[in-house]
Design a protein that fits this description.
InterPro entries: PfkB_dom, Ribo/fructo_kinase, Ribokinase, Ribokinase-like
CATH architecture: 3-Layer(aba) Sandwich
CATH class: Alpha Beta
CATH superfamily: Ribokinase
Bound molecules: adenosine-5'-diphosphate
Pathway: Carbohydrate metabolism; D-ribose degradation; D-ribose 5-phosphate from beta-D-ribopyranose: step 2/2
Pfam families: PfkB (PF00294)
Radius of gyration: 18 Å
Organism: Pseudooceanicola batsensis (strain ATCC BAA-863 / DSM 15984 / KCTC 12145 / HTCC2597) (Oceanicola batsensis)
Strand order of the largest sheet: 5-4-1-8-9-10-11-12-13
Number of domains: 1
Order of helices and strands: EEEHEHEEEHEHEHEHEEEHHH
Number of strands: 13
Protein name: Ribokinase
Strand content: 15-25%
């Protein structure tokens, strides 16, 4: 199983004729609310890839619908606490040309009880996979507890913060990051990736595919991405990582797991939306079986 300490956000999307100017009050033409947050996206991706996933995190009293939606998608939600804070949410303004402006309020995602993440892993067994991203608190407590239980620990370094990655690295077995984050990390640590203290690193390169670095021995393997028509790249990285971890959880070797994750990420960019449209395993397999 996969144990994911991650954010749960309400994405509130407002369509406007233009982005608001300072001091301007502007009526939106439409509004819709969707499930988002890197953590929630990743949990949905793991479930769609066919692995059991337990989401660990927190929502506010207003977040019941998000827990319900995750449960509908097959995510284990027993370890999502309800705390006395507003749920994490993003106010997303989109103008007529598709340009956006986003206000993110982490809310309950930063009110996770660190000791609770350890308790949440009580039923985890050696060989399971633990993952977290940088949208919650309690990352170190969670990764430490996961290490003691013999889980494979994965850290997705997004949204990027050099302090957060530096703190997580000694507690991480597998680091997943995109090209921008990889460049920021090398700069921030003043060391090339293969010299970092983590066993495996996967750098995603968008349409360029990805690169897998095994630091012991310094082997680097490049993987080309499938070619697809790009509609919306939102959620590609979360889909890739969720599928990668599900594949590893199902016993695939890294190279094979990367192959599946790349297909899922590529199919995801042909779709508009985030958590709600992450492809199912059979869709991924059928799409690329042609
Ligand atoms: P992020 O969304 O975190 O910035 P990337 O853009 O690197 O991450 O995308 C993650 C993965 O999704 C890539 O490694 C690739 O497998 C797949 N992917 C993303 N964009 C494309 C694309 N245009 N064509 C094919 N695959 C893509």
């Amino acid at each position: 199983a996969v144990w994911n300490l991650g954010s749960v956000n309400a994405d509130r999307v407002y369509r406007l004729p233009h982005l608001p100017e300072p001091g301007e009050t502007l009526a939106a033409q439409s509004h819709r609310t969707g499930l988002g947050g890197k953590g929630a996206n990743m949990s949905v991706a793991v479930a769609r890839a066919g692995s059991r996933v337990h989401h660990i995190g927190a929502v506010g009293p207003d977040g019941g619908w998000m827990r319900d939606r995750l449960a509908d998608y097959g995510v284990g939600v027993d370890r999502i606490a309800t705390v006395d804070e507003v749920s994490g949410h993003a106010i997303i303004a989109v103008d007529a040309r598709g340009e956006n402006q986003i206000i993110l309020y982490p809310g309950a995602n930063l009110a996770i009880e660190p000791a609770g993440t350890e308790i949440a892993l009580a039923d985890a067994t050696a060989g399971d996979i633990a993952v977290c991203q940088n949208e919650t608190n309690a990352q170190a407590a969670f990764l430490e507890a996961a290490g003691l239980r013999g889980l494979l620990r994965c850290y997705a370094a997004a949204p990027f913060s050099v302090d957060a990655v530096a703190a997580a690295l000694p507690l991480t077995d597998l680091l997943v990051l995109n090209a921008v984050e990889a460049a920021q990390l090398e700069l921030g640590m003043d060391r090339p990736l293969p010299e970092l203290d983590v066993a495996d690193i996967v750098v995603t390169l968008g349409a360029g595919g990805c690169r897998w670095i095994r630091t012991a021995g310094g082997t680097v393997r490049e993987f080309a991405a499938p070619r697809v028509e790009v509609v919306d790249t939102t959620g590609a990285g979360d889909t890739f990582t969720g599928y990668l971890l599900a594949a590893l959880d199902q016993g695939m070797e890294m190279a094979q797991a990367i192959g599946l994750a790349q297909k899922a990420g590529a199919l995801m960019v042909t779709r508009l939306g985030t958590a709600d449209v992450i492809p199912e395993r059979v869709e991924v397999e059928n799409y690329f079986a042609r």
